[in-house]
Amino acid sequence: MTMDSAPARHSGQGGTGPAGGSAFAPAPPAEARRSVTAIHPPRGPRAERARPAVRPQRVRRRQGVVPLVTVDALAVVATAAAAPALELPSGAAVPAVVLLAAAHTALHAQAGLYRPRLAPSALLELPALAGRAAVLWCGAAAVLAAALPGRALGWSALLGAVCLQVVLACAGRGFVNQLRRRTAVRRPVSALVVGPGAGAGAVAAALHGRPEYGLRPVGIADTGPAADADNGALPLLATHEDIRRAVIQNSVRHAVFTRPPEADERTASLVRLFHDHGCRLWLADPAGTAKVTGMRVAQPADQLWGYAVQPLLPRPSRPLERHAKRAIDSSLAALALLAAAPVMGACALAVRLSDGPGVIFRQERVGLYGRPFTLLKFRTLRADEHESATRWTVAGDRGMSPVGSFLRKSSLDELPQLWNVVRGDMSLVGPRPERPFFVAKFSSVHPGYEARHRMPVGITGLAQINGLRGDTSIEDRARFDNHYIDTWSLWQDLWILARTAASFFRFRLGGS
Description:
This protein is an alpha/beta fold. Helices cover about 45% and strands about 10% of the residues.
C-alpha cells in the first residue's frame, strides 16, 4: 500500500527538481508556485534523510517534559522540607518524599499538564496546579494521620503546604516556559500549514509574525481548489509528492492543520505521511468548534495568536496499555493453540482427506501501518492464487467441499491465525486484515478506510461481533473499526473476546 496515490491537480510544470536537489527561485505568481517543492533550506547542517514509511517515527521533542517534571519534583521536595509538622524518622523521610514526588507527577500527567503547548502559561495552569496540590497534600495528611497519629498535620499546616506547593510549582513552570520561549525565538523549527485557501494563509502569517511560537512556516500544503487566493511569499504544495519532498528537504517537524484531518480524503491521507516522518500535528481552528473523530484532541485548549490550537495525538497513545495488549495477546494465543491442538488436528485431517494436499492456505494481507504479512487459514477451497487475491468472496462457491463449508460457517478455518498472533503479525482483537488489492481499492473509495491500520489487525473485532462479516458494507466496517480504535481500551478488548467466544461455533453464511 502506498500513500503516493493522491490525485494531482496540476500538470506539474516548472518548479520541481530532482529528488535530492533544490530549486530555489524568487516567488512567482500563485498559479506558477503550486508545484514548488524545495522551499527554504533547513538551518544548520542537517542531512536530508527520508525515514522509513513502514511505521511512524517517534517525534524528537526539543521541548520535552523533563524540565517540567524536574521543577515539579523540586517543588514537592522544597515544600516537604519547609513543613515543620512533616518531620519523619530518618529512614522514612527519603522514601516518603520520593513517593510524594511520584504521585505529584502522576496527578499532573493525568491532568494533561505535560502535554505539548504552543503558548504555555503557568498562570493559566494555576487552577489545575492548585487542585492537584490539594489532592496530594490531603492524601499525604490522611496517610500520615493513619500511620503516625501523633504527627498528624493540622489545618493551618496543610493549607500552608498547599499554598507553598502551588507558588513553587507555578514559579518553576514560569521559569521553564520563559526559557522555552527564548529558545524558540533563537532556534525555530520548520513547519507546514495544511489547509485550503485564505485560512491556511492566515495561520501561516500568524506563525511568521510571532516567532515566540517556535514554528517557522516553510510552505502551505493546499488542500482546496486550485483557484484559492494567493498566500503571500510561501509556495503552495499541491501534490502528495510535493509535500513529501518538502518535508524531507526542509526537515519539517510540525504540521498545522486548519481543518480536522478527516475533513476530506486528501487531508486524511497526509496524516500518515507526517507521522512517518516524525512530525507533530496541530489543529488550528479559528472557531474552536471542529470535531475530530480519527485523532485524539488533547486538552486543555491552547491558542496561536487568537486561533484555537490543540495538539493532535494518534489514538491510542497509551504505550503501557499497548504493551499490556501485546502481552495478553501472545499469552492467550499460546494457551489457545495448546487447547485447540486436538481440534486443529482434526480439521487438518478432514481437509487432507476431503480436498487433498495443502492443508494450510497462505495469503498476503495488510497489517499495522500498511505492513504486509502472510495470513494463515485452513484451506476451504481450491482457488487460483491470483484469483483469491483479487476476488472479493468465495461464499457459496460450488468448488467448496462440505468440509470447507463447515469450517467457514463455524469459523474453525480461522484457528491457524492464532500463530499469526503469537508471531506478532496480528492481535486477538482489531480490524480484520484485508488483501493489498482491496486495501488500495477501498482506500480510494471509502474515506477513513486507510485509518483502520492505526492499530494491529485482529482475528475478531467490533465490526465482526455486530454481524459485519463476509459480503457486508465496507463503509460500515470502516466506521466500526475506527470507532473501536478511537475508544480502545483493554476492557473493550476483553468484552469483544467474550462476545466472540459466545458466538464462535454458531453457523453463519459467508466468510471474512
